[in-house]
Design goal:
eight-stranded mixed beta barrel, binds manganese (II) ion, binds guanosine-5'-monophosphate, alpha/beta, binds sodium ion
Length: 249
């Protein structure tokens, strides 16, 4: 499979880059954190979406190496941005590896990043299919001091109960719920109730995919404490994050 062969080559030759999307405090609009996102410019083809190459890495045994390299690069950059939180996406396949927590711990230590600055984002799939093992893996990660977010909430089958059961530290509302606001129906009620439930459990909420001031205003009313989306910034290279942070001081 040519895609996998090219991906393997790209990982080994350090061709996977990392960009960062700011996450802002809803009320102050200041950047409180960034989410690291992997990028691959495939030789001879141009940019390939992570929606293509992450699944390819998962099915070909390359995801552990790819995921750790993204984490390492993200920590290396974040070491320059004092206090800003760093969120990194974790594939359920990585999460399944018994050595994962120890690897995370050593990458943070290498870069002098306190675990309290780091949040790992995961989607629901593994929790639904292997709740026992997922619970154990989460426990290990929480013991090293990183926090855990339930990503893409509302795009699949995860329920509010998961947040409590697995001890998630944050809920990330999927952009499909934000887009649905413009389509009317009962989207606003759904979103309001979802955010209220999470908050009543003491779990803070970030909304993703905010593109307009109207959406930002609605999510502020719903009680989301953090927002992320093109309205504030697209995912950008590390140098641009440094500039954005300088500009807000
Ligand atoms: O950046 P968007 O850029 O197109 O990302 C598309 C999808 O790929 C998102 O669901 C995002 O969570 C996922 N993704 C991006 N980077 C990474 C990564 O480093 N690891 C994992 N597991 N998923 C990622
Ligand atoms: O990990 P997650 O699935 O949440 O990844 C975030 C994805 O959303 C990435 O693909 C990122 O590039 C994309 N994204 C971030 N902000 C916006 C936005 O405002 N609008 C849209 N359409 N996509 C966004
Ligand atoms: Mn994410
Ligand atoms: Na995701």
């Amino acid at each position: 499979n040519q895609l996998e062969a090219d991906l393997k080559y790209a990982i080994e030759n350090d061709e996977i880059k990392v960009v960062f999307q700011p996450v802002v405090n809803t009320l102050t609009r200041r950047i409180t954190g960034v989410e690291a996102l992997a990028r691959w410019n495939r030789a001879g083809y141009g940019p390939i979406s992570p929606d293509i190459f992450i699944p390819a890495a998962e099915s070909s045994g390359l995801i552990d190496q790819l995921g750790l390299s993204v984490l390492r690069k993200a920590c290396h950059e974040a070491a320059e941005w004092s206090a800003v939180k760093l969120a990194v996406n974790i594939s359920p396949v990585q999460f399944r590896n018994p050595g994962f927590a120890a690897q995370v711990m050593s990458i943070l230590a290498e870069n002098d990043i306190p675990p309290s600055r780091v949040m790992l984002e995961m989607t629901e799939g593994y929790f639904i299919h292997h709740p026992e093992r997922a619970g154990t893996a989460i426990e290990k990660l929480k013991q090293i001091g990183v926090s855990i977010a339930l990503d893409d909430f509302g795009s699949g089958f995860a329920s509010i109960g998961y947040l409590r059961r697995f001890g998630f530290n944050r809920m990330k509302i999927d952009k499909s719920l934000v887009v649905a606001l413009d389509e009317g129906g009962r989207s606003l009620e759904m979103l309001t109730a979802t955010v209220a439930l999470a908050r009543s459990l003491g779990i803070p909420v970030t909304a993703e995919g905010i593109e307009t001031e109207d959406q930002a205003a609605i999510l502020q009313l719903c009680g989301c404490d953090e927002l992320q989306g093109y309205l504030f910034s697209r995912p950008v290279p590390a140098e641009e994050i440094a500039q954005l942070l300088d500009a807000q001081d």
